[in-house]
Amino acid sequence: MDKALQTMINNMPEKTGKDLESWVKILGKENFEKHSEAVKFLKTKYEVTHGFANTIVTLFRENNAPKEDLILSQYSGKELLIPIYEMLTSSIMEFGEDVLITPKKGSVSLIRKKQFALIKPATKTRVDLGLKLKDVGVEGRLENSGPFGTMCTHRIKLQSVSDVDREVIKWLSLAYNQSV
Description:
Elements: H1 3-16, H2 20-28, H3 35-46, H4 50-64, H5 67-74, H6 82-93, E1 100-103, E2 108-111, E3 115-123, E4 126-131, E5 143-144, E6 154-158, H7 166-178
Antiparallel strand pairs: 1-2, 2-3, 3-4, 4-6, 5-6
């Protein structure tokens, strides 16, 4: 997630009166066929500015698009890595109901109030777990962010389901808890 988008999400409660999760729930009760209809709805009914309305609708549609299609596309030719992805997401869902799992074209963003992690099939034999961790040094399997750049502060390379162990869950939990 780029910095500008993260800033918009962070500013959403102050600028629109609701956080992203609340807007997603509102749009989930409606049935708009077109992006522009949903934007117009937010602008007219809730007086949300165009920029925020467009961002809210875009994130809502990405989150409610057929996730399976995006995931299958990411793991095409890398199907043996899907159990790692499934283990990570099932573990993350135990943290709380406020986790938003948002598949993108090449990765999956994990968002609470802010993005706290990314899951990306990096190679045919490895999933990279990117984490946003404050005041945590590089140690052991917890490497610098590598190709994630500023989207994450750290990375853990996972090659099998058994790599998703207590240590990985501990780091994920810390990133989740820091994302408030």
